[in-house]
Amino acid sequence: MTRVRTVLGDIPAEELGVCDAHDHLFLRSPRLPGQELDDLAAARSELAAFRAAGGAAVAQWTPHGMGRRAGDLPELSRATGVRIVCATGLHQAAHYDPGVLDRLRGGRLAELFVSELTEGIGTTGVRAGLIKVAGGFHGLDAHARRTMAAAAEAHHATGAPIAVHLELGTGALDVLDLLCGESGVPAERVILGHLNRSPDPVTHREAAASGCWLAFDGPSRAHHATDWRMPEAVRALAEAGFGDRLLLGGDTVTAGARSVDGGPGMPYLLRRVRQRLVQAVGADLVDRVLTEHPGRAFGTDWS
């Protein structure tokens, strides 16, 4: 049976419910000093607001070493009634202190990822349900290639989906060449994030034709200039026959972006983005993108 691995255990994929397929409850990075997502009470309030808007599940893409606070996620899930999927994996090298990267490079990344997927993260007992990795701007550096190769190895050992940060929405085809072409990961096990940040319809269609998942996330303060293009991009993919490959997320990465701190936050995905997309592609497809698709994208048989 296809199941989604949440922080409270595995559930049937069809029970996931309305899902924010790409977001963050906790996140710390040297690139975002003073903007950390590290407030437990605020995270609880944000999840409660998302639940009140009709949300049922959130996939947190915060990977290893970036303050994901895995040990706090089960109680947050129980307190709010929102299912949470946690990530293993690594982001770009720039998001880590050099000492952290040196330590990680001293071991086998694939073994770390597999351990966090199957045994648990540290002493928390919380098992990750996805592998997060990241590309670069229109290319893949040595760090990206190493982490993606490890992610592919971990996928082959567990069946876990691989979620990819595309820098400014670029490099999608390079990522697919590496993960699916060189490393043999089935395209339907790959989720490409931030496609709205580079609204190139040709690349979108080529990526979708591979069978991978295309995640459109926002609104994003840093990339607001392309947010308004998202309905157009989603409609173009649906009209080209790729409506069944789409995911939606909020991607809240700073404290000021939370709804409880004055930003749009997680509820905005359901409060405004949903309605705007209904105008573009109809309520039936949007409902499937928010409910059926995440279960398929994050679900696996967990070998």
TrEMBL record:
Source organism superkingdom: Bacteria
Binding locations of Zn(2+) 1: 22, 24, 132, 251
Alphabetically ordered keywords of this record: Hydrolase, Metal-binding
Membrane-crossing residue ranges in chain numbering: none
One MF term in the entry's GO annotations: zinc ion binding
N6-carboxylysine: residues bearing it: 132
Protein's name according to its UniProt entry: Phosphotriesterase
Organism: Streptomyces argyrophylli
